Amino acid sequence: MRRRSAALKPPVLIALLAIAALLGTGITLYAQHRLALPQRVEIVPADAAVFPGSSIAFNARLVGGDGKTPVRWSVVGPGHVSASGVYSAPAGGTESAIVVARAGDVSTAARVRVTAPPGDIPLLLIACYDGNGVDVRDLSSLARAGMLSAPDDAAGIAVDPLRRLALVAAKERVMAIDLRTMALATSVPKPGARFDQAVRLAGGYFAATDNNASKGSPGVLFFRIGANGAPEAAGSAIAGETPEG
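Now predict its structure.
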């Protein structure tokens, strides 16, 4: 007698239950029973911290679904969330909010803490090239102080500890961060550029390399922070092809 089997496919688990009823012919019978697993929504991150006026991206998926059920987003409390799951905190206040992700008939939620700037303490700044934010942490404990919005492809970061300023290289522009207030300001875009690495120079200047620069063209650009807090172009230098560090 040929035994029947089935592949394990979510959300249905195929459980083979042996009946162990031996017939006179010595054949064992098997029965199939379908057990439906409950669906749930998984959200990442489940707990987040963001500075006033900045944003953080959430991702959610329906576990046990067919991958076609759309996720709908909503927020309870201050701020707002986009259709793609990006939560934006209000410019003022440090209240908490709840971001809700719903898919079909099930939902889950994540807490967002809108946190005040950490003050005059040593900080660790982390930029994710595949993300759109800067992770700010307390250097002594590595605890997250909050997230900052950043342009796409944020890469190298340079810090001026005396002036409490940071410069982030991000694709066609650079972004300045006032570490005292966590205020952000970006430079005028340079079309076609791919700013990759940043470094602090003497005299209050910063430099950023353009990874898309061709040989013999300006590949290192110099910036200073203007009175409005935004980076301003202050010169350039010729570099080799595709300059990086």
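Residues 40-114 form a domain with the Immunoglobulin-like fold (CATH 2.60.40.1080).
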